[in-house]
Design a protein that fits this description.
five-stranded antiparallel beta sheet; alpha+beta; elongated; 5 strands
Length: about 80
């Protein structure tokens, strides 16, 4: 089973063209550089689902909060503090 974690794009960098982009994504208190090639329409402030270092979809803030809540209830993200 695959698991994607929601995170908020806080900046977009390392853009070679309109498709090949990387962004800094916040997962609560953790920030990671994430490949944004599969979500070319994503922009700063959007919430994305991230799997193995790549954003695979865009979700709204409410959906991201719901997923975080489920993961916390399961004890899977104790080290993350939601913003």
């Amino acid at each position: 089973m695959c698991l994607a974690i929601p995170g908020k794009i806080i900046s977009i960098s390392n853009q070679l063209d309109d498709t090949f982009r990387f962004g800094r994504v916040s997962f609560g208190s953790i920030i990671k550089e994430i490949n944004l090639c599969m979500v070319p329409q994503a922009k700063t402030g959007d919430y994305v689902l991230v799997h193995v270092g790549a954003a695979i979809g865009i979700v709204d803030e409410e959906e991201a909060a719901k997923v975080f809540s489920y993961l916390k209830d399961m004890g899977e993200v104790e080290e993350l503090d939601q913003d």
